[in-house]
Amino acid sequence: MNAATNTARAALALAAAGIPVLPLRAGKVPFGNCRSCKDGACGGRPNMKLAGPCRCPAPCHAWAAATTDPHVLNSPQWGAAWRQAAAVAYHPGGAGLTVVDLDNAAAVAWARATLPATRTVATTRGDHWIYRGAMPSANAVRPGVDIKSLMAYARWLGWGVGAMAALPDSVRALALTDPPPARRAPQAVSVPLGGGNGECRHRTSVFLDRGIAMAERQITGAREAVHATVYRTFLAVLATHGQCGCLTDTHVARLFAAAQAKGESPRHCTDAWTNALTRLGL
Peptide bond preceding 53: is omega within 30 degrees of 0, i.e. cis? Predict the structure, then answer.
């Protein structure tokens, strides 16, 4: 029995267990789209319009090609792909699962200290922690940590060990790159805030200036999750100074400028500020 036959049989066994599968080429990459789907001509994933599954006879659109249909998996077009495949992948979200992909030892140590225990599959560099439940996928939620669930694929590396836990809120929160939806429509921010006399009650104006400078550095230094960093920074500034009457348009403009320098739009800055105000009840 050759490797291609083993790969195809493994895929059929997974499909029979309700896990949507697809073939991977060498390098853990999916097969390219057919001519009809090339460059998103059919409204495929490049345009983010394809919800899957792909209806093409050959495996197209990466995760959207994943299927449990044995007739598709045994078709001549898929047979040709299996003969070239280097591995089997699956669509976790399609199986109602979420994979926390831990890419190195430091990421694994973080997960052990932070996340609920669940089924674990060893990888070449770290672990896949698999939870029961689907969610939006997200890359680089932390150093060495990706989340693979809906609209993503993961390489099949075995059933793993341990009982599978329900998807916890701590994992869902990792994928939040935007602040929670505002409970009121976005609006222009009018500052100063509160009814103070323009002086920071906490110490002096120097305290405020240092705080704004630190907030600017926090935003400017963000290497990932910029949306979330901007929101958390705005929230921290308002939690400290929002009721003092000491924030001015100049201070807020500095924060917005730092955020926009990282690629945030003026609209997102306003939304993040408004959400922070709402959360603090200001």
Answer: yes
- Between CA 91 and CA 53 the distance in angstroms is 10
pTM beyond cutoff 0.70: no
Long-range contacts of 56-60 (CB under 8 A, 24+ apart): 58/31, 58/34, 59/22, 59/23, 59/30, 59/31, 60/31, 60/33, 60/34
Q: Determine how β-strand 119-122 pairs with β-strand 138-142.
A: unpaired
**Helical spans, DSSP H, in the chain:** 3-16, 70-73, 76-84, 105-114, 169-172, 205-220, 226-241, 249-261, 266-280
Does residue 199 contact residue 249 with C-beta atoms inside 8 Å? no
Q: DSSP letters along 81-116, please?
A: HHHH-SEEEE-TGGGTEEEEEE-SHHHHHHHHHHSP
Q: Mind listing the pLDDT tens digit of every residue in the chain (282 residues)?
A: 456 678 889 999 999 999 999 999 888 888 877 776 765 555 444 333 344 556 678 888 788 889 999 999 999 989 889 999 999 999 999 999 999 999 999 999 999 999 999 999 999 999 999 999 998 888 888 889 999 998 889 999 999 999 999 999 889 888 775 444 444 433 344 443 433 444 555 555 667 777 888 888 888 888 777 888 888 888 888 877 777 767 777 788 888 888 888 888 877 788 788 777 777 776
- Measured distance CA(165)–CA(14) in Å, rounded: 20
Instruction: Say if strands 87-90 and 154-155 run parallel, antiparallel, or are unpaired.
Output: antiparallel
